[in-house]
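Final report, closing paragraph on structural work. Over the funding period we assembled a curated collection of sequence-structure pairs, and we close with a single example.
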Amino acid sequence: MQFVLTKEYLSTLSDAIERQDKHYVRQMLDELYAADIAEILEELDFEEAKYVFTLLDGEEAADVLMELEEDVREDFLENISSKDIAQRYVDNLDSDDAADLISELPLSVRSEVLSHIEDEEQAANIADLLNYPEDTAGGLMAKELVKVNINWTVTTCMRSIRKQAEEVEHFYVVYVVNDRNILQGIVSLKDIMLAPSKARVEDIYDSDIHTVNATMDAEEVGSVMKKYDLVVVPVVDDLGRLLGRITFDDIVDVIKEEADKDYQLMSGISESIETTDNLWILSRARLPWLLVALLGGIVGSRVISIYEPQIQIYPEMAFFMPLIAAMGGNVGVQSSALVVQGLANNSLSRDGIFPKLLKEFMVGLLNGLICSALLLSYNVLFDHSMALSITVSVALMTVISFAAIFGTFVPLALDRFKIDPALATGPFITTSNDIVGLFIYFMIGRMMYGIFV
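Its predicted structure, as stored:
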């Protein structure tokens, strides 16, 4: 059953912590998953959280530690010795999680933690993983896996699999390698169990397998696993040697982080931040695009000032300035959002930019015609002059068509120059369309009214 954290639960737990009733606190945590306990610790004050954390056993404590938010985990690690980190937590984690944990420590502490790991092979595996950037397949992979030699018999396989499985918490496939550890394929447990005991692996394995290189970007790994519905994918080096494996739960965090990053970029936030960050970090992340919007607003005001004589003669044109600007911004964001989504999941066709621009122009034109017709009906109904009604409607249709093209072109252009296209969906698109939309509005107004200033 899903755990729901309530104020009553936290109050009861805090009272038990204050009484230092270890048995009752431990009882309240029974049957909870590591993620649930981490959620509780993040809601308690730090001293209370430390008290609860000391009551967890080694494996449970390690799992809870990895579920905590990074800043909270950092606070915990500052109060734990290098030896305890190595022997109480790292020893109870898979190599990928252990490497992630150690990578968050200061450089001076990392070597101390590694030196306290008693299992030399585990220490070597973690040290190897630390050499890969965290946003690559090598930075995501775990060393724990089950593999067999292509020349072995089924009997030898079964003995080796039993021994290796003791070190691997979950395994989904058995990898087949040659004498040089080059990945050849996979073999299912079913095929091994059904095969004659003297049969060789080379007779029953499947060579059709998807792999990723250790240097591949983590986002690309996610795309591969999603495209081919993979629960696990092996990681190889440039020579095809088997290095590790990435399971779907490892890649889910990457997908979430990328989605959060793109959402923040689309909202005009220039760097990854959390609500718990200090005021300066929060302000620094938001300010750049606010300044862009400010500059855009200044340029927009200059556009309006250029056409001030026209507004003085026909002040009713000012009534529809917010509408024109808002519609252009909204349409631009819609178009760019679809393109960014398509680029992110590789669903866009590879037939060049022009067909996409043409299609989006047709969509914008259709939507513009509908919105313009509705606006024309409104203006006629409320007895606005025909000149104003036609001017606003034509301007709206033009602005929507332009915004659709512009919103499509910008993310495609940014992607072509290897710039994150998510930048195109926030203040940049809305500000640009505001300026251009007002310019188009007054230009059409000047033509429709026959005013030449």
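The chain is about 65% helix and 5% strand. The first strand starts at residue 147 and ends at 149. We thank the funder for supporting this effort.
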